[in-house]
Amino acid sequence: MVRLFANANYDFLGVRKYAYGVTAVVLGIGLLALILSGINYSVEFTGGTLIQVETTAPIDVSRVRDGLNSQGIRGAEIQAFGSDREYVIRARTAKEGTDADNTQETASAVESALNAVLGGGTYTVVRTEAVGPKVGSELRQKAFFAILLSFVAVLLYLAYRFEWRFGLAAVIATAHDIATTLGFIALLRLEVSLVVVGAVLSMVGYSLNDTIIIFDRVHENLRKLKGVSFEEVLNRSVNETLPRSILTHGTTLASLAALAIFGGEVIRPFSLVMFFGVFTGTFSSIFIASPVLLWIERKWPGAAVKALGMRPASARAGGAASPRKAQPVT
Amino acid sequence: MHTIRNRFILIGALLALSIFYLFPRQQTIRERGQDGVMRDVTITRVPLKRGLDLQGGMHLALELDQSARVSADPARDIDLALTVLRKRIDEFGVSEPLVQKSGDDRIVVELAGISDPARAKAIVQRSAFLEFRITDKTGAFERALPSLDRVLRGLGVQGGTAKAQPSAVQQLLGDSAAAADSADTGPGILTDLILSAAGSGVSATPGEFMVLESAYPRVDSMLNLPEVQRALPRNLSLRWSAQPEPVGVESYRFLYALDDKPIITGTSLVDAQAQLDPLTNGAVVVFDLDRAGGRKFGAETGRHVGDYMAIILDDLVQGRPPVIQSRIDRRGQITLGNKTLQEAQDLALTLKAGALPVPLKIVEERQVGASLGQDSIREGVTAGLVGTALVILIMIGYYRFAGALAVLALGVYILFTLGGLSMLGATLTLPGLAGLVLSIGIAVDANVLIFERIREELQHGKTVRLAVDEGFQHAMSAIVDSSVSTVLTALFLFQFGTGPVKGFAVTLIMGIAASLVTAVFVTRTFFMLWLQRRPALTTLSI
Predict the structure, then answer these.
(1) Per-residue pLDDT tens for B217-274?
(2) Is residue B204 part of a domain?
């Protein structure tokens, strides 16, 4: 039988200093990308008009842009969408001199520009999204509160299910996931649409799931094991859940790869964000959630950790300063 | 023995229920055909609702457009508009339309599978405020023109109309506007631009004036200046014709001076139907008034025999005002000129459904063509099949026999999820489809947790039977905890999302529920059966 990482015994907590370094670098790159290119919000959030057209022949992008300019639509983005027969036109600003919340004038101005440049009948509009700035800002607000509130809800659940220390550690790990994912989105210049916010929220759910499964094992091991340090308990728990993590991430990545490759252009950003989310979620469960829990338990030890029979800090003077192989698991 | 049989009966019942809800069935859809006749179409399909992004369709969010006229009671007007839109959409004839209030000030309209979005938008947006007015015979407007010109001069309106209209208008003006500008030194701007139709020999309709189509936006903006509005004669209102008309080589827009009070409005209308006029073969709308309306209309038209009556729809005069030849009672006719029968039908249905109290503006529009929806379904299904195949390979490759059981359970899981969605009447959207594919990867997690636990127990030297029992028991808490946390995030997603994202959240929640049932109940039953058949089993292929 195939067994991956069975009886694994890696000193995950011991190398946490290096993991922090990796985190710092990843977050740094992400922050840089965020500062340099910013977040590319979809028209759903900024307000504006998106028109996807199928053409009979490749189009001259600059001529279309000129046509849009002459219709009073400035700074439109025109992109090929998957092939050179499909294009997406995004007009973020309304047609000059019109009420931006009345989305129709801009949409029809885009169509008349296309008619003028491409000629009627050489293209078909397959998708339109026209969102007024008012609706857009409402959506932004809703998305923000959805992420924030789901945070609070999960923290409360974890606090109820385990204790507040676990909940806090899980939420810090999740915050890390969101930060790195934002950096990833900025780096790839992915468009942040409602679907991508959906992906970020699912990624949060997935990563939390991962953290919870490790913490669940920690919880169990805290009752079972006596006379070992808390760091040892954490290390064992991570190692014991490692085969499960590898398998589940494997199957999840497999279906995400299928989605990214075969699922079509509209859904691709979703697949990419989730794909990245699986990695950052796994990393954070092992290298953020667990060390943060260790740190919290050292600062404010909980009853279960005290009952281990060893003060967590006394196990190793100076914390992680002396790298040491973890005890072999029997 | 009994427990295993009962378990299989329960699983069988759940499966039968899922299949029942997914079984293709006949559905009757009431649709209006190309010829404008409503008919019932019966089709056979899987009763899983597809979202607009998968079957093609239009989503509109509308708000009151108060740019021209401020609503006195927005709350009442939006409710009124909702009722009117419901009636119109019912008459329009699309299958399973949705017309719904969203929040306090917004109406959401969802129309699936429509082929002509522009037409649908026009029907939703048209105010359809109908009124009849007698044209002014006193010549009051003509006499007032010089004083209006004085007002304009006093305002400093020379050639430019900077104050009244933004640059877009000037772009429209073109050459003739420049010509008009140079004529400013003459007797007066409006006197120059507004010609009396009656005097020019074009017609004998009193109160009818002509403006060059190219000068129409400019004149309109001048007439709309508050100062000019105040200087207009009392008991008089001005309305433009709906379309320009060619007179000689030029195209003209007609301007009508009308009695201030309409003789009747569309609120008295009880029925309207589109027809082809047998004489001219042009489209007409025939309407019927209610009793009170008919009495009033009869009395007024009787009093105005020989006068001209303008038919005004949404502040625009439809066609040239006809002369009233005799008293008209409850039944009348609107001639539409060169419009198609379909346009006449659309007008008839909006008239019948009633006028919108305040015009509506579209603050959000999402529209997906049916072909794109088809592509999305095809791509989603391909991704789903490939994803499932990969997951099956991994599971069987890694867990062998137990993996095969898990794959069996995965099949059950997919059926449960789809059946559950159908049972709840949930809508499958494109993100929902993606969520489903993703959940196939995640669904095996519960099985993986259990299997890994069983392996551990086996390693600790427990017997196969005990290891399986304990594996299931010990994995439970992790499975429940992770399910609850995922459901929590999905609930927030559902709360905030619009249609497609809501579909994703529903799929996710349904998937977690189905995965919980399959992993802890179905897989367990498979194991129980297996162990019962082989009481002497000492090794497990896991």
Answers:
(1) 888 888 888 888 888 888 888 999 888 888 878 888 999 999 888 888 888 888 888 8
(2) yes
What average pLDDT score do residues B370-395 get? 91
Q: How far is CA B401 from CA A10, B38, B405, in A?
A: 29, 58, 7
- ipTM of this predicted complex? 0.83
In a domain, B44, yes or no: no
d(Cα A129, Cα B99) in Å, to the nearest integer?
Answer: 19
CATH of the domain at B64: 3.30.70.3400
CA–CA distance from B19 to each of B22, B27, B43, B282 (Å)? 5, 17, 19, 54
Topology at the third CATH level for domain A48-131:
Alpha-Beta Plaits (3.30.70)
CB pairs under 8 A between A and B: 249
Q: How would you class A122 by CB atoms within 10 Å of its CB: exposed for 0-12, middle for 13-18, buried for 19 or more?
A: middle
Q: What is the dihedral of CA B78, B83, B85, B89, to 10 degrees?
A: 160
Inter-chain contact B361–A3, Cβ cutoff 8 Å? no
Contact: B501, A139; criterion CB under 8 Å: no
A46 interfaces chain B, CB cutoff of 8 Å: no
B492 vs A134, A146, A274: nearest CB: A146
Contacts of B496-500 with C-beta under 8 Å, sequence gap 24+, read B496/A142, B496/A143, B496/A145, B496/A146, B497/A146, B497/A194, B497/A198, B498/A139, B498/A194, B499/B51, B499/B52, B499/B53, B499/B59, B499/B110, B499/B427, B499/B429, B500/A194, B500/A195, B500/B51, B500/B53, B500/B429, B500/B430, B500/B431, B500/B432
B164: chain A residues, CB-CB within 8 Å? none
Q: What is the mean pLDDT of chain B?
A: 82
Residue extent(s) of CATH 1.20.1640.10 domains in chain A: 16-41+136-321
Residues 154-213 (A) with a CB less than 8 A from some CB of B: 154, 157-158, 161, 194-195, 197-198, 201-202, 204-206, 208-209, 212-213
Residue B386: predicted pLDDT: 94
C-alpha distance from B20 to closest chain A C-alpha (Å): 28
Classify A16-41+136-321 by CATH class. mainly alpha
Query: Residue B541 pLDDT more than 80?
Result: no
- Cβ-Cβ contacts under 8 Å for A249 (sequence gap 6 or more): A278, A282
The residue written with tokens 């009849």 in the block is B132
| CATH number for the domain that contains residue B446 | 1.20.1640.10
Q: How far apart are CA B86 and CA B365, in angstroms?
A: 18
Chain A residues whose CB is inside 8 A of the B372 CB are: 52, 126-127
Is the full-model pTM beyond 0.80? no
Paired tokens of B530: 């297996």
Lowest-confidence region among A303-317, B367-381, B405-419: A303-317
Chain A 246-275, CB below 8 Å of chain B: which residues?
Answer: 247-248, 250-259, 261-264, 266-267, 270-271, 274
* Contact (CB, 8 A) for B190 and B219: yes
Give the pLDDT mean for B457-464.
86
